[in-house]
Amino acid sequence: MEKPSQPLPPNDFNHITDFNAHCAYKRCLAAEEKLGGLTKDSRCRLICIRLLGYMLREAPTSAGRQELATEIIRCQGDESLHELGLIYQGHFIRCFRSIKGHTPKPSHHPSAPSFDQAVSFNFAQLQPTPSSHEKAKKSALERDGYCCMITRRVDSTSFMKGLVLHDGQHMLTTARAAHIFDRSTNEDLDNEEKRLYAASVHTILDRFGRVDTIAELNGANVHRLENILTLSPEFHDWFDQLRFWLERDPTPTAVTSAMLVTLGSRITFTTHDSTTHPLPSPRLLELHAACARIAHLSGAGEYADKVLRDMETIGVLANDGSSDVLTHALLLSTARPIPAY
Q1: Most Cβ neighbours (<10 Å): which of 114, 141, 149, 321?
Q2: Which superkingdom, per the lineage (predicted)?
Q3: What is the CB neighbour count within 10 angstroms for residue 204?
């Protein structure tokens, strides 16, 4: 069931100490008001505007917030603002969700030429993700005690191999290696359109999240332990679908990385050797958490999946000629290809 898009809260960015964010958010509020209520005709555009507003509110770093605020302010007219929201929906929200559908067409940034330059640079740096990650999964299981990090259920295969004892309290499970930054982003890079899409994703994560994913997660590095959690199947699916996320505990110790599961439980991650078996990166988890909150509040994640499913099922044009699918497809068609240098 599609989750409703939440109206943007009042502007609480200080107009003196956080002037750019205040002005950018004010513009989002004005565009939201101009579109009116959440009608069938305005839904796609309204979600794009709310997505930008919630990204300002949920930005994991102040530098990333300022970067986005500048992009919003520089947009020429509401159409450019809609296009900017669509870019972030298709490249930021989508890179953390497991339901993919068609790869969005690469597009020029409507207000930041430097974005296109960064995409061209990242295009040349990208390396394909190795298909096998068995070694990474094995190391992650060793780090996490052959258990799901959330439920502490023992991995059945590891138990059968005698690698771990069963405590007699928890049910066995099939542990999976869940990637925080989706491994599929860097796959199929021989396809130029997919490569341009991947380069745009990396550029957005660097500019908004302040995580240099080209340096940290390119090629085989996507399988590094800092990008992997050991999860049971249901939690793996929920994590990939942004149905739950992990937030940093405000008082972590120097030895453990404590996280708060949004389902209400406090989880402490530990490792026997932080050098050979490092814990999941708090910065990547914070970026995933920000993405999840933004997707839920704006309705962007569920809506994008709905549109993609409809495009698969009924094509672009509905019988009455006024479908959400058509609106979304028309916005996508305004994208201009980014030249690769």
Answers
A1: 149
A2: Eukaryota
A3: 24
CA distance 198 to 188: 10
Helical H segments across 210-323, by residue range: 213-217, 233-240, 282-298, 300-314
Whole-number Å distance between alpha carbons of 82 and 287: 23
Q: How far apart are CA 115 and CA 63, in angstroms?
A: 15
Residue 225, amino acid: L
Q: 267 phi and psi, to 5 degrees?
A: -115, 135
Position 113, amino acid: P
Chain centre to alpha carbon of residue 100: 12
| Residue 22 phi, psi (nearest 5) | -60, -45
Beta carbons of 118 and 337 less than 8 angstroms apart? no
Complete DSSP assignment for 57-109: HH-SSHHHHHHHHHHHHH--HHHHHHHHHHHHIIIIIGGG-S---SPPPP---
**How remote is the C-alpha of 332 from its chain's centroid?**
19
DSSP for residue 112: -
Beta-bridge mates of residue 260: 247, 266
Q: How far apart are CA 211 and CA 203, in angstroms?
A: 9
User: To the nearest 10°, the Cα dihedral for 143, 148, 154, 155?
Assistant: -80
Average pLDDT taken over every residue of the chain: 81
